[in-house]
Write a structure and sequence with these properties.
- This protein is of the alpha+beta class and about 140 residues long.
- It is built from 5 helices and 6 strands; from the N terminus they run H-E-E-E-H-E-H-E-E-H-H.
- It has a 6-stranded antiparallel beta sheet with strand order 1-2-3-4-6-5.
- Strand 2 and strand 3 form a beta hairpin.
- Helix 1 crosses helix 4.
- About 30% of the residues are buried.
């Protein structure tokens, strides 16, 4: 089970990431002031839309590159990834922290960062990763 400390550690390890509370006072992580991951509890409308399927554990909102990636994640593992009508047409998913592995959490947060980081910053980070890991 992943924790908020894991989210914080993974997000802040990415270049030019800052942590700042979102408009509702919950933690959010940004790259050059563009949010890419944030704490996102279900709201009343979400609970009504999800009904009995509404999870009760901690949820992380994550930006994804596009709607195709969103749909792929939702189809790949609906026990981990979900969405609500609030996110219809928006490239983001909700992640159940109590169901995601740390390697998968690292991947989804990193991909969220790439989706929001400026192109030059993202390219420089990818190049560093290739030099460091050889992949």
């Amino acid at each position: 089970m992943a924790s908020w400390d894991d989210v914080r550690r993974i997000a802040l390890a990415l270049p030019e990431t800052t942590e700042r509370a979102s408009y509702d006072g919950l933690p959010a992580w940004r790259v050059r002031d563009k949010p890419f991951v944030w704490e996102r509890p279900l709201r009343r409308a979400d609970l009504a839309a999800l009904g009995a399927a509404a999870p009760d554990g901690p949820l992380l909102g994550v930006r994804v590159p596009d709607l195709g990636v969103k749909e792929a994640l939702l189809a790949d593992d609906p026990s981990v990834y979900l969405t609500t009508p609030h996110f219809d047409g928006y490239p983001a998913v909700l992640v159940r922290l109590d169901r995601i592995s740390l390697p998968e959490l690292t991947e989804v947060i990193t991909e969220g960062w790439y989706a929001r980081a400026p192109k030059r910053l993202a390219a420089a980070h990818r190049a560093r990763q290739v030099r460091t890991t050889g992949s």
